[in-house]
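Quick one, tokens below:
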């Protein structure tokens, strides 16, 4: 991207991180940002907790390790800072399908790859996360080849709200046509 994704400004001047926090507020009692704040001033977000990775530069598994070690809860709704199209209704669907000890992710109708974010992650996974990090195995998807996953079906038209924005071209595309649509359950 040429700059930290969390601070990328979109069509109305708000950052990607601000869009994600806005989607999470109606769904979560407590909000936590894990990792480097990427130059984004977090002081303007009331009630936000900021945790730093013990293993910076080791990807999402390091962030999950910091989150689980915090012992703030026994399961977590985890999203990426680069998903500004998420909606509270979409996130609520995921939360409603979750159990205390299973992983919960969205899955399309086909055998397409799932995106591990957003997802519900149980804190009991901490020992395994530490093992992956100790082995310098930082890829998240291979670590999630498990039997204890709950899948929430999502239609192809609604899966666009899960999109991660990773390139300047993707930023330009969503800025050309801001998504003012709402998510429809059902």
């Amino acid at each position: 991207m040429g700059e930290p994704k969390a601070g990328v400004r979109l069509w109305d001047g708000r950052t990607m991180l601000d869009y994600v926090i806005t989607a999470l507020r109606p769904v979560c009692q407590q909000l936590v940002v894990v990792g480097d704040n990427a130059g984004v001033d977090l002081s303007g977000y009331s009630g936000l907790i900021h945790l730093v990775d013990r293993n910076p530069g080791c990807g999402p598994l390091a962030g999950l390790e910091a989150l689980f070690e915090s012992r703030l809860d026994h399961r977590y709704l985890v999203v990426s800072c680069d998903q500004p199209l998420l909606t509270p209704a979409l996130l609520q669907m995921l939360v409603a399908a979750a159990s205390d000890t299973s992983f919960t992710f969205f899955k399309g109708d086909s055998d397409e790859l799932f995106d591990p974010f957003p997802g519900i992650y149980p804190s009991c996974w901490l020992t395994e996360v530490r093992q992956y990090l100790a082995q310098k195995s930082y890829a998240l998807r291979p670590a999630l080849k498990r039997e204890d996953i709950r899948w929430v079906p999502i239609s192809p038209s609604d899966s666009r709200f899960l999109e991660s924005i990773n390139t300047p071209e993707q930023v330009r595309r969503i800025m050309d046509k801001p998504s003012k649509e709402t998510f429809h359950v059902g």
